Amino acid sequence: MLSYNNLWLLTESNTNAVIANFTNLGLASCNLSEFPHFLHNQYELRRLDLSSNNIQGPIPSWLWNISRNSLEYMNLSHNLLTGFEEASVVLQWAHLTMLDIRSNMLQGSLWSTNYFDGSISPAWRNGCNLRFINLSHNRLQGQLPRSLANCSMLEFINFGENQLNDSFPYWLGNLPQLKVLILRSNGFYGALRKVGTSKFSELQIIDLSQNKFIGHLPTAYFEIWDAMKIIDTSHMTYMGESDIYPGSFPVFAYENYDYSIIMNNKGLRLEYLKIPSTLAAIDFSCNRFEGAIPNVIGNLKALHLLNLSNNMLTGHIPSSLANMKELECLDLSSNWLSGQVPLQLSELTYLSSFNVSWNNLSGSVPQGKQFDTFDSNSYKGNSGLCGALLEIKCGKFETIPSTPSTFTDDENSGSFFKINWMIIMIGYAGGLIVGVVAGNEFTKRKHDWFVKTFGRKQLRRQRKKNIRN
After folding, report:
1. Are residue 332 and residue 426 in the same domain, yes or no?
2. What is the DSSP letter of 267?
3. Is 358 contained in some domain?
4. Does residue 389 belong to any structural domain of this protein?
């Protein structure tokens, strides 16, 4: 192993030289400017590291054919690679676990931090051993290749920030090890229906934000996402850590390769350079989901982040969200939610970011514990909310949830009003109406009803009696 020694490695070809077959070859940071020629005849490589060199130009076609039956790890990252010698690349390695080509200048159609365009090649055949795939921040188009379903060891999939156009890939739900699925900022569309046996049984992090998904939130999935229900702090590790080669010294980054993601958290785009193995998150923001937030989502007790903002959700905020004791970020802003902010949410002692702005909420805002740390921006755009934080005094009925009001003129003398948006106490004794009235709108309606029923003359008499009393 010659990596990270500030060496200059000469790779001039010599037809008389005999090079032994290597199993592990580390040539990172050796000032290489081209691919070593002796790699042509390597048939037993398991791990090859050519990262952090000055290798320029396209990746040669012969490189995809070396050590077909043995190669598990190849790292070409942090070079000056510009593309591929072949227009279409098919991965031939039966046992490949990780291919790292980030931090280059790659262009062309393949399938991060490069500029791939075109469609994703269906390169994964039966027996695919990939655990990690990250092709985010490119210009990939078309659909996800169904051959990904052959990679039964996949733990991490990130196709975020591309131009993909496909329905929800429910078929990925049969991958038994999948923990992270990032499809953010693409053109995915349609409803999130559970189809067949797809379960996503080990899924902990899913980011579908900034797409074109429609329909109701996926209750069927919330019910079976067991990995988001279990709080296990007994093994505090990071996703991607591996001990596949116990006893070996860490020459290759793969032996301790940490997964990383970028998610919207607390109003910021934060990069997790390492993902704690306990982290669980759902981001469905900036889509077209509608209907109510299902109560069953409260069973996902291990969630740290829940972002359902910028959709068309209606109904009340379910109090079952208070069951998510690990929740740190809750964003329900820019929807059509109504009713109160459940007082039970004040029991979420880890909650450090909370946003329900721009909805149709009413009543008093919760107080105490974490809610004393939030400012008025968490509630703006809800004209019915009140409380000391908003400098709006709550009336007598602020704890009553509000729904749209209805009123009819043709009521009989036995029922004065038909109001659904608040509880009104009305008594009738000796011609005296005793009422508790809230709001100018209701006062006007009461006035109009009285005039229509008894006339303006009777209204004046009633006012005089009220003054005398």
Report:
1. no
2. T
3. no
4. no
Measuring CA to CA, which residue among 178, 207, 217, 312 is closest to residue 269?
A: 207
- 147 and 204 assigned to the same domain: yes
CA angle 189, 169, 95 (to 5 degrees): 145
DSSP H or E run through 117: strand 115-119
Measured CA to CA, the distance from residue 469 to residue 465 in angstroms comes to: 6
Residue where the block lists tokens 């805002």: 365
149 belongs to a structural domain = yes
pTM of the full predicted structure? Answer: 0.66
| Domain shared by 234 and 206, yes or no | yes
- Contact at 8 Å (CB) between 381 and 358? yes
Q: State the CATH number of the domain containing residue 323.
A: 3.80.10.10
Q: Are strands 432-435 and 426-429 parallel, antiparallel or unpaired?
A: antiparallel
For 436, the domain range is 404-469
Q: How far, in Å, CA of 279 to CA of 407, rounded?
A: 50
Residue 59 CA: distances (Å) to CA of 53, 138, 412: 14, 18, 85
pLDDT tens across 116-169, in order?
556 676 666 666 777 888 888 778 889 998 888 888 888 999 999 889 999 999
